[in-house]
Design brief:
- It is a single chain.
- The radius of gyration is 18 Å and the shape is globular.
- It has helices at residues 13-25, 29-45, 49-70, 73-92, 99-112, 116-128, 134-150, 154-170, 177-195, 200-216, 221-234.
- By secondary structure, it is mainly α.
- The two termini are 35 Å apart.
Length: 237
């Protein structure tokens, strides 16, 4: 559905947010941005501040994906501003259950700028305030592990990533398999990338684990693209 086809009655903030989120998962990034931006205006008018934070999260991720595809720094800056806005709104409206995801996005964007100390600090805050499902906490933890590893704390970083994988796998019951696949494959891809120079054979093992998950779930459109890009960088197919 194009933006011009949004009809009266279908332009509520929640509807626009959902459309944008779906388009982002399909890797239709530019169209997703239009819907997500429109959703911000409507959600604010409707007073739906918790969902406003979630919509900013989705737009932040969209900017991030565009940065990773194009290497255009402006997209990373836009992602940073959305992450900061998430935290400010969460604090201003006392949305305590949105602090974890807000700190997480700030940390995730800090990784784009290779500010690993800032990323570590905010990933730790995200875990401290975490109030969601234990499987998602594993996703938060493996991202912290990546930041630690890239900050030179390789042993601790690797251990933390694998701890995150265990949390994801051990708490997968009752969670949408798509989310479990996203989180677990992401952890394996990070391991493959981080170990590619120092532990090449082990890197291959994790790359293949990610590949198996990604090719088993047709919904993982972005992950498939990311896996192919990773394979080119580290010499795997």
């Amino acid at each position: 559905m194009s933006v011009m086809q949004v009809k009266l009655g279908k332009n509520s903030g929640s509807y626009l947010h959902e459309r944008g989120a779906v388009l982002r998962e399909k890797d239709c990034l530019e169209e997703a941005l239009v819907f997500l931006t429109l959703s911000l205006v409507h959600l604010q008018k409707e007073g739906k501040y918790p969902e406003l934070v979630d919509a900013l999260k989705d737009r932040c991720l969209t900017w991030k994906h565009l940065f990773l595809v194009t290497k255009e720094k402006a997209y990373a800056i836009l992602a940073k501003k959305d992450a900061e806005s998430m935290l400010e709104i969460a604090k201003s409206y006392n949305l305590k259950d949105k602090l974890d995801t807000s700190y997480f996005r700030i940390a995730e964007v800090a990784m784009l700028f290779e500010d690993y100390q800032l990323a570590i600090s905010n990933y730790k805050k995200a875990i401290k305030f975490f109030g969601g499902h234990p499987a998602e906490k594993g996703d938060f933890r493996y991202h912290l592990g990546e930041a630690l590893y890239r900050n030179g704390q390789k042993k601790e970083g690797k251990k933390t990533i694998l701890q995150g994988v265990r949390e994801i796998r051990e708490n997968s019951k009752g969670i949408d398999p798509f989310l479990i696949h996203v989180w677990e494959s992401g952890a394996y891809m990070r391991m493959a990338e981080l170990l590619s120079e120092d532990e090449h054979e082990e890197s291959r093992i994790y790359f293949d684990k990610a590949k198996k998950i990604i090719y088993s779930d047709p919904k993982l459109v972005i992950r498939k693209r990311q896996l192919e890009e990773l394979g080119k960088r580290i010499g795997f197919k």
